[in-house]
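We both want to read discrete structure tokens more fluently, so let's practise on a single case. Would you supply a protein for us yourself, any chain you care to pick? Would you write everything just below, so we can both look at the same thing?
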Amino acid sequence: MAIRIKICGITRVEDAWAAVEAGADALGFMIYGPSKRFIRANDVPAVVRDLPPFVSRVGVFVNESTETILACRERCQFDTIQLHGEESPEFCQTIPGPVIKAFRLQSRSGLEALSRYPASAWLLDSYSPAARGGTGECFNWNWIREAGSLGCPIIVAGGLTPDNVAQCIETTRPFGIDVSSGVEASPGRKDASRMTDFILAAREAANALNPTISSRSRGSGER
């Protein structure tokens, strides 16, 4: 299986490039003032301007207006919008283009709402009353198998680190994984070596679930 890896909470140019060099597929930018990883929309263009074209830029919003989101998307060159608040299914439909809808799960019953939301992918995150994402807390990964049967790509977040990401992938077999605090030196400041270790562990775990891809990679000299 292939795996898509997003490093979220990018606030600095050097962290963006370190994530890209480590092999990240996507970078997330928190356009949400209360977040410890907040970045102003006006500061994002300087961070993303020279990034490679195949690295996706994801703008993360919480209960914002459609007008604000679309204006930020244009200004910041976002490829995808992530909605991480209490947005309704109807609101999701007001955002043209790729949309990731995030759900903070407190219990298995939280899965019941997923099928009502039109989205390019659903992101399942841990619930915390103190913060929206970046809490360092895991939820029950066994719930994800059930969510995966609903037909929408699943992205797993919440408490992932270089030490547990392989277990997460083996348990859930998701479309993608999202990490923030697990690869940081401090909130909003990424650790290059932890990002490298995280992505290497994730790729190895994904390849181990698909021996055909692994053998082709070894035969072609890919790393």
